[in-house]
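User:
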Amino acid sequence: MAKTVDVAERREVLERLRALKMARSAHAYVRGNTAKFYAWLAGSKIARHVPAGPAVWICGDCHLGNLGPLADAEGHVDIQIRDLDQSVIGNPAHDLIRLGLSLASAARGSDLPGVTTAHMIEQMMDGYEAALLDPEERSGEAPNVVRAVRRRALGRRWRHLAAERIGDVDPHIPLGKKFWKLSAEERGAIDQLFGRDDVRGMVLRLNGRDDGSAVRVIDAAYWRKGCSSLGALRYAVLVGMKGSNGGREVALVDLKEALPSVAPTAPGSTMPADDGARVVAGARALSPNLGERMLAARLLGRSIFLRELMPQDLKLEVDQFSSEQAVMAARYLAHVVGRAHARQMDDQTRRRWRQDLRVQHRGSIDAPSWLWRSVVDLMAAHEAAYLDHCRRYALAA
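Assistant: Predicted structure:
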């Protein structure tokens, strides 16, 4: 069995893994630096030219890896925003800049020419504005990377999720590289949490499960996943259900601590004071498939949110883009984000926001100058910071 990590060792190991992960590529560095993104954006000369869009729920961390297939409570799959930790009521322009930076970074990692990045930003705006025109209209042809991951999602079952996440279909969580042992206090708190009626109800709501089923925790472990929130709670919980008809079922539930968002909020906006409730409210506004199967709670005195992991939940992983696929992906994914924003606006607000964006289309490319300049400035800042991170990581290693 692989060596597990004790509670006292977690932070040190996570810091080391996070530094390694962010040194792997400039795109990984961009994805892992949400706080610096907003700090750099606020400090840039272009910041004052970014339009103040209507106050709606935004993702707050709208990068390429935070979009992908998500199943709803009945198992229907759509491409939606899949990570809402940073969600706030804020300026939708911030999601556009973050997505543009992520796509430009992915294009750079694919060694595509700068003209491709210019076309990507143009197509981003076309896709986003089309969603504002009609949020119920689906986007055009999906790029290969989206079609492939969606096909894979539709064919997945519990055995695929179990093999991928916990390494086996048997009902236990193997300790080792990804899963670390719990303290007695942590296990006791998790057992108590799953004894609550609202948590039991969340688990049984999915896929028409028997309301009379008994729910119990089979196994649980600390989950080393992402490493972006050092010192935060993150657990994988294997839950067993026994129906009144004698049928048995197993589910995998993700417990994650909700930390304060670093994304700027719209002036005068009112959001839940509890961070777990904020994340759930953001998910229900932006990604209904995910939001309807989430729940806010408290564990060990901290705010958390729970969601059952579905086999169809996947992220978009892009190793290499072609120029054509990069441009298609930019339009398609911006349309997904645009629909998430537009669903929260009435007709008049959508028209006004679309007009505000179209007025900004001036210059050598058919995209707002504030968006293009923001992406260019932030790409330069992130590239310099990434190289400095790699230097410091190499010296430490």
